[in-house]
Amino acid sequence: MQVSHTPAAVSAAFDDPNLIAYAGLLPVLRLAERCGLSRLVAEKVKLTGARNGAGAAADAKVTSIVGGMAAGADTIDDLHVLRHGAMPAVFAGARAPSTLGTFLRAFTHGHALQLHAVHRRFLAALAAHTPLLPGSDELAFIDVDSTHKRVYGRVKQGAEYGRFKGIRTLHPLLATVCTPQSRPVIAGVRMRRGKAADSRGAPKFVSEALATAREAGCTGTRILRADSQFYNAGVIAACRRAGAHFSITTGMNPSIKRAVLGIPNDAWQHISYPTAVPDPATGELISDAEVAEIPQYTAFASRHLDHPFLPISNQDQVGMDATK
User: Fold this and answer.
1) How many DSSP H helices and E strands does the chain contain?
2) Which of 36, 175, 298, 306 would you call most buried, defined as having the most Cβ atoms within 10 angstroms of its Cβ?
3) Cα torsion at 286, 291, 297, 301 (round to 10°)?
4) Contact, 45 vs 139, CB < 8 A?
């Protein structure tokens, strides 16, 4: 079956003044009010000196952006969903997309840190009002990584050509917290220049992420997980100061090679990955591996970190042998 005529230009708009497209926002924003989102923004976010009144009513603007994102908006123009149909009859103070765009463009790195302070306190209040992180009093995982976010404005603060040739990016650090019974929740974001090294600022960021997790109710065992870019003395020290455990991948170096070669054959234990991973040497997908502990190996022994012991996987040994 097919249509038998050429369609004319068609456009659709939700503009019935008696209908609400996103009534589900009502409980979401009530919860945000109960957890103090507007109050926290009013206390912490101060865009002093911003032109065209961009810094005025920061609480209403942040709440509008959060509401728009919850309704599915992923661009500034999409935030117009808050003003369609009968939405103004249910929600007061929604700002126009152009106003919100001016507000966001006025942010500097310092203003972003103010918003981070709001996020940290709001997350703690949200966890106290809802079962956000069930089981966090027993076990919680804090995952830290970096990512690249492409940007196009030449004057955007921190936008630089970094790892990707010809592409201007920011290079933020990200931290999430979860439990075996919950989905990951964003615990922190730290904006950085596009050329920033993966681990730049990581020790302080890890300290803040672990503190945020504790404030959000993670009072049991906390385990920080990160890849080899975060294998440095500062990150390990931050974990130990916070009383947290850690699972951090390590790259190969001569001392680790010697430690791996010294592991007895009967010390290895078989494990299976939930999903196959590519072998670093051949590219072949593998799902089986072996792991062993090396209690005699001390990481960062010269840094006076009270000798943190690190488990090392047999995958390192396979990669080393393949390079001989």
Assistant:
1) 10, 11
2) 175
3) 60
4) no
Q: Is the pLDDT of residue 279 over 80?
A: yes
Please give the residue that has the higher pLDDT: either 302 or 259. 259
Closest CA to 301 of 253, 233, 246, 241: 233
Helix (H, G, I), strand (E, B) or coil at 30: helix
Contacts of 17 (CB under 8 A, 6+ apart): 85, 86
Please name which of 152, 156, 153, 237 lies closest in space to residue 192, comparing C-alpha atoms: 156
- Quote the CA–CA distance of 257 and 99 in Å, as a whole number: 58
- For residue 235 the two structure tokens come to 């990150």
**82/98 Cα distance (integer angstroms):** 13
Q: Rounded distance, CA 209 to CA 189, Å? A: 9
User: What DSSP character marks residue 156?
Assistant: S
Question: Are 140 and 220 a contacting pair, CB within 8 Å?
Answer: yes
Q: Please state whether beta strands 221-226 and 285-292 pair in parallel, antiparallel, or not at all (unpaired).
A: unpaired
Radius of gyration for the alpha carbons in the chain, expressed in angstroms and rounded:
25
For the chain, give the percent of residues with pLDDT over 90. 46
User: Does the structure show a pLDDT above 70 at 305?
Assistant: no
Taking alpha carbons only, the member of 22, 25, 4, 26 closest to residue 14 is 22
pLDDT value at position 309?
44
Q: Torsion angle, CA of 23/28/31/33, rounded to 10 degrees? A: -80
Q: Give the residue ranges of DSSP H helices in the chain.
A: 25-34, 37-44, 58-70, 87-90, 97-105, 109-129, 202-215, 233-241, 254-261, 314-322
The predicted model gives 245-253 an average pLDDT of 88
Could you read off the pLDDT of 133-158 as tens digits, one per residue?
999 999 999 999 999 988 887 777 78
Q: pTM, whole model, 2 decimals?
A: 0.80
Burial class (CB in 10 A: 0-12, 13-18, 19+), 133: buried
The b/e string for 155-176 (b: 16+ C-beta within 10 A; e otherwise) is eeebbeebeeeeebbbbbbbbb
